[in-house]
UniProtKB/TrEMBL annotation:
<feature type="domain" description="DNA helicase Pif1-like 2B">
    <location>
        <begin position="1"/>
        <end position="23"/>
    </location>
</feature>
<dbReference type="InterPro" id="IPR049163">
    <property type="entry name" value="Pif1-like_2B_dom"/>
</dbReference>
<dbReference type="Pfam" id="PF21530">
    <property type="entry name" value="Pif1_2B_dom"/>
</dbReference>
<dbReference type="InterPro" id="IPR027417">
    <property type="entry name" value="P-loop_NTPase"/>
</dbReference>
<dbReference type="GO" id="GO:0006260">
    <property type="term" value="P:DNA replication"/>
</dbReference>
<dbReference type="GO" id="GO:0005657">
    <property type="term" value="C:replication fork"/>
</dbReference>
<protein>
    <recommendedName>
        <fullName>DNA helicase Pif1-like 2B domain-containing protein</fullName>
    </recommendedName>
</protein>
Amino acid sequence: MLLRNLDVRGGLCNGTRLITTHFGRFVLGCRFASGERSREFVLIPRIDNYTDRRVPFRLRRRQFPIRLAFAMAINKAQGQSLNSVGIHLGVDVFSNGQLYVTLSRAGRMEGVKTAKSTERTKNIVMKAFLS
């Protein structure tokens, strides 16, 4: 999963799921995992990160802006279409529309699996929409 926006127009946004196919010293070769650009090949460069200016020396760290992701937070999944979605509701959702965003990631309800200790969960809804 990509950790920062590299090329928004090109689809390389924070939270984009990628499949890494080539490992290089300065660049990764990846394919988009889903969406309109599914299977399209892209290069992900290493990014320079520098230490805080409050220290007496300057340290540069180079790393790839990706993270191994078996799971992702609801806000990272927003805007993505997935074939199957596993949802862990160990804690109730905490904002308006969050449960909707979660459930609507899958194209069909057959693709949704939930894990919850009870059969009900709290869904925060703005009262104005109900009246």
